[in-house]
Fold each of these.
Amino acid sequence: MFPEQRPRRLRSTPAMRRLVRETTVRPRQLILPMFVAEGLSEPKPIGSMPGVVHHSRDSLRKAAADAVSAGVGGVMIFGVPRTHDATGSAGSDPDGVLNVALRDLRADLGDDTVIMADTCLDEFTDHGHCGVLDSEGGVDNDATLKRYAEMAVAQAEAGAHMLGPSGMMDGQVATIRAALDDAGHSDVAILAYAAKYASAFYGPFREAVNSQLKGDRKTYQQDPANAREAIREIELDIAEGADAVMVKPAMSYLDIVSAAAEISDVPVAAYLVSGEYSMVEAAVERGWLDRERTVVEMLTSIRRAGADMILTYWAAEAAAWLD
Ligand code: PBG
């Protein structure tokens, strides 16, 4: 009898396929990144990210509540301030756009979801870098850490449950952990962007935050060609006190997600970034891809690679499909 092995047997009916399916994606594993812009009275579409908006203070509250009702596990908030300066001072101002939004969300949602904040300066600086600059125009690691510490405490005070330091400065997790603990916020968790690559896939995000950046982030974000340094970054962040670690972007870095899942004893997140979102949306718009099938396949692949949670602009929509 040939063939002796017939793997198709386990694919023969929907019930059989359901029975042997290994990987699942649940809404609670999805985190919705959201943008809140200062001075808006109405939400404003982001051209490069169809379906994603700059929220006003009020529309953010409503959209976040809707996402929580849809079952998402958390929301990650990015602030888009009206004014920028050299040290990104609006980032640590209690009345800055991001901190005001965090306070609103914590008042509305309490502990019903995990409220996360991007802890980084690039949205707030007039040069668009993730840190403060030294006299030669380079990013000054240790001066930046001081700013991250101030920002982290302000975000914790505003009500964030979990902070996402995304600037890739050396020592940022240890610095933020110590600052939070000193300020009495030992309960606030850190989701460390541990392996964050200098990626072309952040293109649409830069429009989303009105990025002032000229040049690139290659002196602090990782070279896409390197895997070993991701392991080093992940191990360092865990040693410094990260409660969870993230790999970013996701789809072109599934090998890194898989390696992170192997070595990490804390949960692993992956960020399906703006460019990954926009390229699918563009193809969907042309009728070249089916949105739901494509997105669910991407999310499933990221989970299969080993991620426990996924940041995605499709979180709320996908939660409904997955339910
Ligand atoms: C930096 C930050 C970036 C993203 C998240 N946090 C941009 C960057 O590093 O240039 C990108 C997210 C995305 O592309 O969806 N604060």
Amino acid sequence: MTAEGNDAAAARPPAPTRVLSGIQPTGRFHWGNYFGAIRQYIDLQTAGESYYFIADLHALTTVREPDRLRGLVHDAAVDLVALGLDPDRATLFVQSDVPEVTELTWLLMTVTPMGLLERCHAYKDKKTRGLPADAGLFTYPVLMSADILAYDATIVPVGEDQVQHIEVCRDLAGTFNHLYGEVFTLPKPRLVEGGARVPGTDGQKMSKSYDNTLDVFEDLAAQKKKIMRITTDSRPMEEPKNPDDDHLFALYALMAPESDRLKMADLYRRGGFGYGEVKKALAEAAAQFFAEARARRAALEADPQRIEAILSAGAGRAQAKARDVLDRARRACGLARGKAGKRLAGEKPSGKGGRL
Ligand code: ADP
Ligand code: TRP
């Protein structure tokens, strides 16, 4: 009977929770990145073992200036720790510090149907817009799959746009396991509650690509100016408004404490207020919301060796795990001569994420 059989499943201890996520260092983090991704990572670091990495290999498909990339990786690490990622609880590392992942990418590539990648939106969108795409962008979901499988992750917190890639990951892991035995743990995506889609200064989804971002650690005076320029409609002040379909209110609601949010919603419904007032309140609420993180960031910047030590310790822990998984995969598919496939006796399975 396999481990999937009822008796074995009933006898098996609950799967350990292993959380993993990556974030690309392609620009300074904005509010959308924080509320759509980073905040969840931080909340989940107490859920079990956790791995968070800065996806510099993925960023290479868009950032082609070496010094800028190095700077962005450093800033991302400092930002994450300043925002509350605790390196004593979570393993924080840089993707390229674990080269085992790129070897695993190749193994996965050999079981990846072209059609699966052709359907992936990052590549498909570029192609539809007639833009040139390289093989790095095309195979990006395979690298992402290796990122996840290398650490036996069970839960992957991501924004909605990444769910498709986790499905690809499960697909590839399933095919590999089917061919070579139970090598990989199948992960599950964990979507942000309510599917938060943070609006930008123009009301569209906040994104670096739309030049409508408000950055987490932006200079406060510059940020206030940007906030004062958030687009609003031209309805008269006295007209009551529905807070639920106003992007300025949506931003305020993310930043303000519950009681202020309720008061502001009331003001919207009553009417008789100007958007300028709301913008000022938003600037203050945002400054307050990130005040502690700003202070932590300043302290980290004053001690550059600390962030390097954190990343180096993280890489050591991550690499040890990835090495085990890669060895398991190499043995299973026949690369490691003279060794048995599948998991070795005494090697603990790391738990299965189960079906989506
Ligand atoms: P950008 O669109 O600025 O390039 P990324 O694609 O690098 O942002 O996003 C990194 C992470 O942040 C992803 O998990 C994504 O889902 C999340 N994210 C980005 N923008 C938003 C947004 N406006 N609302 C919610 N989540 C977002
Ligand atoms: N592709 C993800 C993004 O753009 C970043 C990423 C890379 C990732 N590898 C990952 C996220 C593994 C989760 C798991 O947001």
